[in-house]
Design goal:
Number of strands of chain A: 18
Distance between the termini of chain B: 58 Å
Structural class of chain B: alpha/beta
Radius of gyration of chain B: 22 Å
CATH topology of the largest domain in chain B: TIM Barrel
Radius of gyration of chain A: 22 Å
Number of domains of chain B: 2
Largest sheet of chain B: 8 strands, mixed
Helix content of chain A: 25-40%
CATH superfamily of the largest domain in chain B: Metal-dependent hydrolases
Shape of chain A: globular
CATH class of the largest domain in chain A: Alpha Beta
Order of helices and strands of chain B: HEEEEEEHEEEHHHEHEHEHEHHHEEEH
Largest interface: A-B, 72 and 62 residues
Strand content of chain A: 15-25%
Oligomer: heterodimer
Number of helices of chain B: 12
Number of helices of chain A: 11
Shape of chain B: globular
CATH architecture of the largest domain in chain B: Alpha-Beta Barrel
Number of domains of chain A: 2
Order of helices and strands of chain A: EEEEEEHEEEHHHEHEHEHEEEHHHEEEH
Strand content of chain B: 15-25%
CATH topology of the largest domain in chain A: TIM Barrel
Largest sheet of chain A: 8 strands, mixed
Number of strands of chain B: 16
CATH architecture of the largest domain in chain A: Alpha-Beta Barrel
CATH class of the largest domain in chain B: Alpha Beta
Chain lengths: 482, 429
């Protein structure tokens, strides 16, 4: 993208410190200073009956029941007993895991896009690992509820891509909230957003006469930052071990990078060109960190086997191209080719991402385009496989696959019931549950909480009676609010 | 009546030929023909094409001896998609300035600017969109940042580019004049009223024969001698004015301007058009609108909503679909996805298809020759492997002016270079 908006890497710091094993928390801190306060509402027990279930595990279960209870998937099978629970007849409809977008700027570049809300790039220095995207999130962004209507239950909000190292990203549950902490995905690690290519050198070299102004300046910038962080980490790790004498000085930027090196923060990197990705794999190896996913990566198809070999995911658009030179070599088959790559150490990990407040509302359609393009190129992609591009694979890249991303007993009840196969332009998310709480019901649009910002807009004064008005009447008649 | 045995799949043929077939006589048989005309959808129908024109359409068409026959095998055949707003042929890569000619940098008046002077028929964007069923496009100067209040004249092109007969790919060199109000106009002129005053000043000057030209009263707002005849054509309704306006009040201001000067007005943007649908309908002013927008990306689009299209349709406002994002040129091919989204949100599928074929042709004054499958019209045709509005469907054959287009682009060539078909997938994850 042209606007200096895109930043595509984030790192998650594990909030569940107890789960970190021998990992240290952020270098000088004992605990996450911004803990999650997300507490799902009490979840009702729901039996979704007779759906076509795409599990996210490469399997399709026809005419199958799924029981949601206490915020989790309690049972999957045929002929499950309803008991006293709410039953939803889902015959002819599709049930999938909630969609996970690994690349969003919702909240940090919200709608409306005005100076007051333009908070996604700390474009004052090329390396700003000290900033956290979550501190820019405006929870009132109407894009969150629009994404929910598209079946998005979890998303990673990232800083933009103006900077080589743009700051920390964060994983949130797509629930209505007043504060961002009420959206924080409990236990998800934070991320580090890094960016290759044209954006940093344009913003600093062309825009400001500063470094970097070239591709080699970019790489020098990453290496300088991690070289410094290696020493910082060593000093702090030594001090943490002995706890003797005065502690080293705190440096918020180095705190972030040190936790990257410790594996507590996951690296997500905006990178378009194959050669740039290969360079970054070398840089990561040099300093001992792992890149979870390359984002945008329009040339990923050129190095798909290498990505599979290194276990690096590629988060991709179905068909965006040509807005800058590094996006010139895009092909519609990129996702399917990355997906089909195999190596001795692993299989390709393709993710469909949005990076866009409109695209995030129709990630299912974008996956459908990529699936169809793959099939026409002779790459057999089934719907039950392609759903993984939107669910299991992004969950893997975000380090939350043990909690969400597939329909398995015991996992979070992050579930979408679609009006038809989701691989269609006509499909709607009929109902969306997040941790077992019904957060969207298409049949009752007025029951969805609107962003405060949207209150008072005159959307109903255009002519004929509206569906909303009819819905109001229905609600008034039944008193029902799901 | 004779039918030659089908020797090739329609889609494959162009690939094999590698170059466009000469305009000739051929028949597409067994097609589900979406005429986008009063005949509606004809199943198992024949379309006869001769010398680039549609000669006959129907279930009882006689196929003359010597005609090439293409068996559609029941697949949908539609008119070519017409993109009512793009920069196709005018920009190659947004971020490579040298290839980007969408804006003049003049803040106020660039009426004399004609994009037809700069269009490139070898743009790589043409085949990428052509093989996806886009056959004609309006290409326009930009009124956004770097653009002008009166930005210049757009052209209608054929996506055949160099493959058009005799290289005549510019369908209409001066198709409309583009200008802007709203937030864009405000940015260029200083405020909304200043933008309106600048537009009125220009039309007054054109109407009065340019008497005030050069008197220096308006500072940078002076018109050039070349601007005046263009504005006069707009005043004489020979050239439509496409005014960008999103907010309902800005649309009303545009309608007042058009009333005062008797302009042939088209509104682009139109995010809040549903709030002033009656005013638009009563004046028969059409809108170019993106049916997928539902977020208040700007304050001037605060009341945008996904069912606006269904509301406009009910109110009798004519509309054609455009892509309001920055991807409307490179991915003009996704216009049919936007039409599908409209169809998924309350518009009939027929109306949605019309909004990317016949409606843009009508709004741009081309409907006597383009936009539907009817005898006498230019044979811009697309054969699909499924529902034309469905995201999993693709075009399998494209004809522009009766010529078979090669189904290749720089992207397909890149794909073929790198595509290594792997062994059947082991269970991943």
């Amino acid at each position: 993208m042209i606007r200096p908006v895109h930043a595509c890497l984030g790192v998650l710091v594990t909030v569940l410190l107890a789960a970190c094993g021998d990992r240290h928390p952020a270098a000088g801190t004992a605990a996450d200073p911004f803990p999650s306060t997300y507490r799902p509402a009490p979840a009702t027990t729901v039996l979704i009956r007779g759906a076509t279930v795409l599990t996210g595990l490469d399997s399709r279960l026809d005419n199958t029941d799924v029981l949601l209870s206490e915020g989790r998937i309690a049972a999957i099978g045929k002929g499950l007993a309803a008991g006293g629970t709410t039953v939803i007849e889902a015959g002819g409809r599709y049930l999938t895991p909630g969609i996970i977008d690994v690349h969003s700027h919702l909240g940090v570049y919200p709608a409306p896009a005005v100076w007051a809300t333009s908070d996604g790039n700390e474009a004052t220095a090329a390396t700003t690992p000290e900033v956290w995207a979550e501190h820019s999130i405006w929870p009132q962004d109407p894009g969150f509820e629009a994404a929910r209507a598209g079946g998005v239950t979890t998303l990673q909000v990232l800083p933009g891509s103006a900077n080589l190292i743009g700051g920390r990203g964060v994983v949130i549950k797509n629930v209505p909230a007043v504060t961002y902490q009420q959206m924080l995905f409990p236990g998800a690690r934070r991320s580090l957003k890094m960016a290759c290519g044209e954006n940093p050198k344009r913003v600093y070299g062309k825009g400001g006469g500063r470094s970097p102004s070239t591709g080699m300046g970019n790489v020098a910038g990453y290496r300088a930052a991690f070289a410094k962080a290696s020493g910082y980490r060593a000093r702090w790790d030594a001090w943490n071990k002995e706890r003797k004498g005065p502690s080293p000085d705190r440096d918020l930027a180095m705190d972030t990078l040190a936790d990257v090196l410790r594996g507590n923060i996951l690296v997500h990197m905006h990178c378009y060109r194959a050669d740039q990705m290969a360079t970054m794999l070398d840089v990561a190896k040099e300093f001992g960190f792992k890149i979870q996913a390359f984002h945008h990566a329009v040339e990923a198809y050129k190095i798909a086997p290498r990505l599979a070999e290194e276990g690096v995911c590629a988060a991709l658009w179905a068909d965006w191209w040509g807005f800058k030179l590094e996006a010139w070599d895009a092909i519609n088959e990129n996702i399917a080719i990355v997906d089909a790559a195999r190596s001795d150490h692993g299989a390709g990990c393709a993710i469909v991402h949005s990076d866009d407040p409109d695209g995030i509302q129709r990630l299912n359609q974008e996956a459908a385009k990529a699936m169809a393009a793959g099939r026409r190129a002779g790459l057999p992609v089934s719907e039950e496989h392609a759903i993984g591009w939107l669910t299991a694979n992004p969950a893997k890249a975000l380090g939350i696959l043990d909690r969400t991303g597939t329909l398995e007993v015991g996992k979070a009840a992050d579930v979408v019931l679609w009006s038809s196969t989701p691989f269609s332009v006509y499909a709607h998310a009929d109902q969306v549950w997040i941790d077992g709480v019904l957060q969207l019901d298409r049949a009752h649009p007025k029951a969805q909480p609107d962003s405060d910002f949207m209150l008072g807009t005159e959307v109903d004064d255009a002519g004929p009676a509206t569906d909303d008005a009819a819905d109001d009447a229905a609600e008034a008649a039944t008193g029902a609010r799901p | 009546m004779s039918r030659r045995p089908m020797l090739w799949l329609a889609g494959l043929s162009a690939l094999l030929l590698g170059s466009p077939a000469r305009a000739e006589r051929f028949a597409i048989i067994h097609a589900e023909v979406h005429t986008v005309a009063s005949a509606g959808v004809l199943r198992d129908a024949t379309v006869l094409v001769r010398n680039g024109r549609i000669e006959a359409v129907g279930n009882e068409v006689e196929i003359p001896d010597g005609s090439r026959v293409i068996d559609a095998r029941g697949r949908p055949l539609t008119p070519g998609i017409i993109v009512a707003s793009s920069a196709l042929g005018l920009k190659e890569i947004d971020g490579v300035e040298e290839t980007n000619d969408v804006a003049s940098g003049q803040k106020r008046y660039s009426a004399a600017l004609s994009v037809a002077d700069a269009l490139n028929p070898r743009s790589a964007l043409l085949p990428v969109n052509r093989i996806a069923g886009v056959t004609r496009a309006l290409t326009a100067p930009d009124t956004r940042k770097g653009g002008s209040l009166i930005a210049g004249q757009g052209a209608i092109i054929s996506l055949a580019g160099t493959l058009a007969p005799d290289g005549e790919w510019i369908t209409r060199p001066q198709a409309a004049l583009f200008a802007t109000l709203g937030e864009q106009g405000r940015e260029l002129a200083g405020s909304r009223p200043a933008a309106m005053a600048a537009l009125r000043e220009a039309f007054e000057e054109a109407r009065s024969g340019g008497a005030r030209l050069g008197d220096g009263l308006s500072g940078e707002a002076q018109l050039s001698p070349l601007d005046l005849p263009v504005l006069r054509r707009v005043l004489q309704r020979e050239l439509p004015l496409v005014l960008h306006a999103e907010r309902a009040s800005d649309i009303l201001a545009a309608l007042k301007l058009a009333d005062d000067y008797g302009l042939l007005l088209i509104i682009s943007g139109a995010a809040e058009a549903h709030l002033v649908a009656a005013e638009l309908a009563s004046r028969s002013v059409p809108v170019l609108i993106d049916p997928s927008r539902n977020l208040p990306a700007h304050f001037e689009t605060l009341h945008v909503r996904r069912d606006a299209i269904a509301r406009l349709s009910r109110a009798g406002v004519a509309f054609a679909f455009v892509d309001a994002s920055e991807f409307g040129s490179h991915n003009a091919r996704n216009l049919r996805q936007l039409a599908g989204i409209a169809a998924a949100n309350g518009l009939s599928r027929d109306a949605a298809l019309a909004a990317i074929t016949l409606q843009p042709a009508q709004i741009l004054g081309l409907s006597t020759v383009l936009g539907s499958i009817e005898p006498g019209k230019i044979a811009d045709l697309v054969l699909w492997d499924g529902d034309p509005l469905e995201v999993t469907s693709a075009a399998t054959a494209v004809w522009i002016e009766g010529r078979t287009m090669p189904m290749t682009s720089r992207q397909t060539v890149l794909r073929d270079r790198y595509l290594k078909r792997p062994a059947p997938a082991a269970p991943p994850r």
